[in-house]
Design a protein that fits this description.
2 domains; 8 helices; 3-stranded mixed sheet; mainly alpha; Alpha-lytic protease prodomain-like; Alpha-Beta Plaits
């Protein structure tokens, strides 16, 4: 199960690197390494939340208490991870400003070596997570559609979604990407401090890194909150549904609600007025193909 396996591998190597950085920071008196180690500790915790979300979603996938399945569990975990990421950026900015006003001594040689190690580990973690896309969930979404007996048509207006974004995996990906970015900035600042005497680079790069990470966190908060609050689904899919149905003689769409219930999986409730009403199943084949419609309710009025 790649959705669970990838975060597990990243958690293990992140925790090991975290331990190395914290021990090295204490041993060499380097606050930079200690701060980076605590940084990785916060991300290891967020990745653990991601893993628990996958396990919970899988174990309760067929639990009747979840009306639309457990697809939103990963969005909830992604939202939680984004909140943790936002809190970390505040701490990161505060600590950087404090160091800018009150510089501390840094053991440059040791700090640079461990920072490079951290960058290599983070680069490997980014490669494992693969950009936050989950092919497994895409496959599960199609299986879910078949389990609910959704009959897809072959109309020309059929939006195709080849890659569905897993918000939980995306959150984990952004966490390790943030780690990689801060490692790059740390190496740059440490090299500048060692060879050019620019000790102020270390806290300044901390502020820059905090700003960049904050932008990613805000973007993820916006995306996941839309799912959790049942924001209307993509306009492309809604327009395709309305056009396909209204292309039928005497049919008018009077109400349409489309909301996401999982990665690339949507629920649809649509009300039609028809001059020659037919049973709801008559209209199902005219819904757009490959739109990820897992739960469909059609109301037909005269």
């Amino acid at each position: 199960m790649p959705g669970e396996f990838r975060p597990l591998v990243v958690i293990v190597i992140t925790a090991l690197t975290m331990a190395v950085e914290i021990v090295a920071g204490v041993a060499f008196g380097s606050m930079a390494l200690l701060a980076d180690g605590l940084h990785m500790a916060s991300h290891a915790s967020a990745l653990a939340i991601s893993l628990l979300a996958y396990v919970y979603a899988r174990r309760h996938a067929h639990d009747a208490r979840f009306c639309f399945g457990t697809g939103k569990v990963n969005s909830l975990a992604g939202f939680t991870g984004a909140v943790l990421l936002a809190l970390f950026t505040l701490l990161m900015a505060w600590e950087s400003i404090r160091r800018l006003l009150n510089p501390v001594e840094i053991a440059f040689n040791q700090a640079i070596g461990v920072a490079i190690l951290g960058l290599l580990v983070n680069g490997f973690s980014v490669f494992i997570l693969g950009g936050g896309h989950s092919d497994e969930h895409q496959h599960e979404d199609h299986e879910d559609e078949h389990e609910h007996g959704h009959d897809k048509g072959h109309h020309a207006n059929s939006p195709h979604h080849h890659h569905h974004r897993d918000h939980n995996l995306r959150s984990a990906y952004l966490h390790v990407l943030a780690d990689a970015l801060t490692s790059v900035l740390a190496i740059f600042a440490l090299l500048g401090g060692k060879y050019a005497g620019l000790r102020w680079l270390d806290p300044v790069m901390g502020v820059v890194g905090a700003i960049l990470v904050a932008r990613w966190s805000v973007g993820l908060l916006q995306t996941t909150s839309r799912v959790l609050l049942d924001h209307q689904g993509p306009e492309e899919i809604r327009n395709a549904i309305q056009q396909n149905l209204e292309a039928l003689p005497g049919v008018t769409v009077v109400d349409l609600h489309l909301w996401q219930i999982g990665p690339g999986s949507y629920s649809l409730a649509v009300a039609l007025i028809a001059s020659d009403p037919r049973p709801p199943d008559h209209y199902r084949p005219y819904l757009p193909k490959h739109a990820g419609l897992a739960h469909v309710t059609i109301e037909v009025q005269h």
